[in-house]
């Protein structure tokens, strides 16, 4: 993660204000070609690093993270009980400006000892800390969490929510200090595949999408403040990781469009974002 000063730059403020206008003004430039990069190769966990609470870096306790039938599985069949052993699977390098897409589904039953709030619960951690800096007993990386939830068969339970281990953000011009905030997505019961995307524009803007529909947006992702200050250091970039929180889950696709080269050209960035968000990507069941 890169810490920034507490002052939000005038350029970023103007960009946040002007982005919807830029997106609406004209069709995206057809010469701007976007390409999805597959972070998961469908075969193994090459380029990924495991960190599980109470264990050393790269100790994949209980074979928690594995590849089966071309999917990343988070599984607990080798656990006697969960014992608060929260885990994360980190991609090898950080990103700053990007659109990440993940297709996931929950399976099976929660492992014995898993907390009630972690039922059919996982997440995509963005703007996260380097796993090498995590303590052995640390449960979650400092990060912004795009929370993934599955339905329980009866209650409303949206997905692509935001949670904040060691962080906070701005929504409607106010700093949000509560730990989690629900999105406006529908609830997905059973074992159906769901696609969640997150558009991340450095320290400016984060937008969550579910099956092609925008469900949440917020600004200025940042660290928790130090002392009595209202705002913390802004998060410009960081790691991406997938969670292990006690309920089995599968990921069949983890892909990204790196937008870093457009970060300093606001019009091109707006064009590419419009091109990407014009397509409603819905996963096949």
Automatic annotation (TrEMBL):
Entries under Pfam families matching the protein: 3keto-disac_hyd
Domain of life the protein comes from: Bacteria
Transmembrane region(s): 6-25
Signal peptide: none
Gene3D superfamilies the UniProt entry points to: Exo-inulinase, domain 1
UniProt domain 3-keto-alpha-glucoside-1,2-lyase/3-keto-2-hydroxy-glucal hydratase: residue ranges: 35-256
Keywords tagged on the record: Membrane, Transmembrane, Transmembrane helix
Recorded GO MF terms: hydrolase activity
Name recorded for this polypeptide: 3-keto-alpha-glucoside-1,2-lyase/3-keto-2-hydroxy-glucal hydratase domain-containing protein
Species, as recorded: Mucilaginibacter gossypii
